[in-house]
Amino acid sequence: MNRWLFSSFAPIYLVIVFNLGSLCLGQEEPPKVASPADDPRKFVQIITNHGDMVILLESEKAPVSVQNFLDYVEKGHYEGTVFHRVIKDFMIQGGGFDAANLRLEKSTGPGIKNEGGNGLSNQRYTLAMARTGDPNSATAQFFINTKNNNFLDRKNSQDGFGYAVFGKVVKGIEVVDMIASVPVKGSANGAPGDGPSEPATPVIIQKIQVVVPVASTPVVPSP
To answer: How is residue 61 annotated by DSSP?
Structure first.
């Protein structure tokens, strides 16, 4: 099922978003796989064939979206999926289609409650849940905003619900920028009006795993 985001520019498929903040993550050594008694903050590492990103999950403000995302992470759902939708100066979307068959959308559970009113804004480098026209239809697909997209916030949205942000990139923004600039071609998985949006060469999510930060280095500044 195609999940679209409708805007004043074009209908678009979306995902959950994170705001950038003041976090300290290690740069000289890789994130460590989490153990049960870790820092209460939740971080995940998205490993792709273009590099890795570390994401802070906004558990307090988007508890339903974050738990849903972590459930899919635990099941291994994201392994071998792709960023199938790349729209310049807007967002990159993924987590739903199989790299081995780009026309095959992976099965998911039911949609979740829309948390678009949680106060988090669709700012650059935040993650949000993708959905269909049904406000409560988000499942596994997510997107990363590659510019400030305030029109996706509930208070500015056309449908009165908006797109729920649930995390932010705190390390690896250069990877986001790299993916956002890949050559694209026509796509059967985009929304009407998208134009070319499918990466010409697949951008593969190899794995998403829960990690703990290695404290000591400066954080990504807010854009």
So the answer is: T
Say if residue 17's pLDDT is above 70: no
- Give percent helix, percent strand, percent coil of the chain, each to the nearest 5: 10, 30, 55
Q: Token match 């993650």: residue?
A: 127
37 lies in some domain: yes
Instruction: Judge contact between 42 and 211, C-beta under 8 A.
Output: no
Q: What predicted TM-score, i.e. pTM, was given to this entire model?
A: 0.80
Q: What does the block give as tokens for 142?
A: 């997510």
Whether 217 maps to a domain, the answer reads: no
The 10s digit of each residue's pLDDT in 102-133 is: 888 999 999 999 999 999 999 999 999 999 99
Rounded Cα distance, 171 and 20, in Å: 10
The two tokens of residue 209 are 């795993």
Q: Distance (Å, rounded) from C-alpha 75 to C-alpha 114?
A: 22
Q: With respect to residue 223, please indicate whether it lies within any of the assigned structural domains.
A: no
- The answer to whether 197 touches 93, Cβ cutoff 8 Å, is no
Integer Cα distance of 27 and 99 in angstroms: 29
Displacement of CA 139 from its chain's centroid (Å): 12
Domain count, the chain: 1
Q: Which domain holds residue 159?
A: 32-212
* Dihedral sign for Cα atoms in the order 175, 176, 181, 184: positive
What six digits make up the tokens of 78? Answer: 């994201």
Query: Is it the case that residue 22 has pLDDT exceeding 60?
Result: no
* 11, part of any domain: no
CATH code at 163? 2.40.100.10
